[in-house]
Amino acid sequence: MIVTVIAVIFLLSIVVGRFLLDEGRIATNLTIRNAPPSFDHLFGTDWLGRDMFTRTIMGLSLSMGVGLIGAIGSASIALILGMAAATMGKMVDRMISWLIDLFLSVPHLVTLILIAFTLGGGFKGIVIGIALTHWPSLARVIRAEVMQIRSAEFVQVSQKMGKSRWFIAVQHIFPHLIPQVLVGFLLLFPHAILHEAAVTFLGLGLSPHEPAIGIILSESMKYLSSGMWWLAFFPGLCLLIVVRTFDTIGENLRMLIDPTRAHD
Amino acid sequence: MSKKFFGLIAIAVFAFSIMLAGCSQSKSSQPNVENKKDELVLAVGGEPDTGFDPTTGWGRYGSPLFQSTLLKRDNELNIVNDLATSYNVSEDGKVWTVTLREDVKFSDGQPLTAADVKFTFETALKNGSVVDLNVLEKVEAKDEYTVTFTLKEAQSTFVNSFVATGIVPKHAYGEDYAENPVGSGPYQLVQWDKGQQLIVQANPEYYDQKPSFQKMTFLFLSEDAAFAAAQAGNVDVAAIPAAFSQQQVPGMRLEAVKTVDNRGIVFPYVKSGNVTEDGLPIGNDVTADPAIRHAINIAIDREALIDGVLEGYGSPAYTSVDGLPWWNPETVFKDADLDGAKKMLKDSGWKDTDGDGTLEKGSLKAEFTLYYPADDAIRQSLSIAVADMIKPLGINITIEGESWDTIEQKMYSNAVLMGWGSHDPHEMYNVYSSKFAGVEYYNTGFYENKKVDDYFEKALRAANETEAMAFWKKAQWDGTTGLSAKGDAPWAWLVNIDHLYLVKDGLDIGKQRIHPHGHGWPVTNNIEDWKWTE
């Protein structure tokens, strides 16, 4: 519990910090180039004298923004498809299952790159790409869940009483899905952030001067052999910590919600 | 279960990568480092995508290595004879007659004659060589060793096509010539593994001063791989980016070669409103204002850019031809002058009326977008640094990194960070002449100045290079107008980038001439001067 609270505070501080930090600190300052970490510049500066701490925080909050929109999009798609598959008859179910299998059979990253590239890259391309690629596993979970609820007695009764499909879906089934969707959404988040970083690392996403974490990492690769370890170390570590934090929150939430594991 | 599975995969991947690393290491240590006094290994990049066919453009940025040219430039960039023993131009400048050496043989032993020269230029014309030959009407072989070129109109820069076009053998030219070049140059090709290496050996038939190295291997490595190879002692010469220049490599020294490999910002010169034939917008209202262009030009601190972005290895650029024989030194001006720039903007009516830090003039806001190719780190750094430098003036430059495909759509209506630099004055004509407005990457800003065009015409019609020189200089700045920043300032030139090479101690690479834009191998241009000093 405490872990979760700390984790949430940590993530919030990154988002808020982004607005507190001075934009001027990522302006070029050619007099303090390549400075190693110090109290003035916690994470050091890069080859143009930009403060790496500020860039990292900005990059992380950008990544979290992309992750958030992408994960919401993915979770919505998963919810809609999962419910449709389970409630709209055999034919629809078969089609959606086939679609899920199709998307699962190709690695995320490949489809993501393909979609981001077709949409011409940029913020829009990545967000849409993430939303369109991360839904299949969650959709499958939701479909199974809906199947189970549908055969429950209260749903059967409701059906016998002549309630419409829509009424049953919204009033009976959806409330039971909220925990699954929430946990699924939170566990999608770190995935989405990592994949955003991967795509921008490969140079398929944002313009290379934007402070996105993947871009910062790929830039720093060029300077590794000249001994500027802080360029890659701190942003990389921060990315790991953020991803791990989301994972922890998701797991803890699952424990809280899932009755079979409530006492773990 | 799944965790175990992942663990297994992780171990397998790890083990596999160690194996791979092991392989590549043992491979790279194979070449014998010692005892290769007449062999060189170079990692200087610049692999040509299209092979080694001079009729499509190979060698235009430096010696073609496998072929030789009619004329060449010496280390002072003067034009001297190579295959030719003399050339002269008719009174009206339209007929050029070239006499050839009689002792030249191709590497396969066949003599080089006027027929080969005729064949080369006709093929280049047909292939649409990158070397511009449009002015050429016909080539004739008068006798075995005399060739005449007839031009559609007089053009003094035509002499550069003699410098840039290697002669190919008529008898050995075929479909796959680009991969199996036969020529009369100092070296002949032994083996070319595309994307990996090129091995060449000395041409025994070479007619001029023979180079002192029997064999050269060009490795095509990325910049950091080249640096790593230099550190490992596997190469004799390595081209490196400025970022690595601060590090000492034992047994090697750093040579910085001056260049006209320049970078600058090209501004849309006209007001917006028009579109090109393909429907792309032309012009930008902000950069069409001369005050904006001049203010940016004098506000930029070029020395700071060189120290900051190029680690000190560069020189300030004022035109596209700095340091070349046809450069006008009067185009140099005092920069890093923020106050002067502010005053200039104020005098022409730019004011910050709404207090947001950006200037306005009527309804126009002093802001525009600067595009740079996303994969070029130096252009990116320059763009960021310039945008930050200009901000205190109240001019807001938004930067955007894109692929060339995207930039091509935007370049007529937005500023672009471009680069040029050639040993041919014709390039200046292409970049600034109104005739080339909107043609390929030339004159994307639609710059036009009647007087400059006039000087260009006169320079092209001049009887020879020396006479043309005066007009090239006047086109830059004649005291009242010109294409440089003192005149119309259609560009803000920033820096000339030094080419950096790590050279093994004891290897003398001679006096390097001013290098052009970085394609090909300008560094081996003077290969016959290279030698071991120990």
From TrEMBL, chain B:
Annotated keywords: Signal, Transport
Annotated membrane topology: Lipid-anchor
GO annotation terms (biological process): peptide transport
The keyword Endoplasmic reticulum is annotated on this UniProt entry: no
The Solute-binding protein family domain, residue ranges: 79-433
UniProt signal peptide: 1-21
Any one Gene Ontology molecular-function term assigned to this protein's record: peptide transmembrane transporter activity
Localization terms from the record: Cell membrane
Record flagged with keyword Transport: yes
Pfam families: SBP_bac_5
A single Gene Ontology CC term: periplasmic space
Superkingdom in the source lineage: Bacteria
Stated family: Belongs to the bacterial solute-binding protein 5 family.
Name of the molecule in the record: Nickel ABC transporter substrate-binding protein
Protein source organism: Domibacillus aminovorans
Classification of source organism: Bacteria, Bacillati, Bacillota, Bacilli, Bacillales
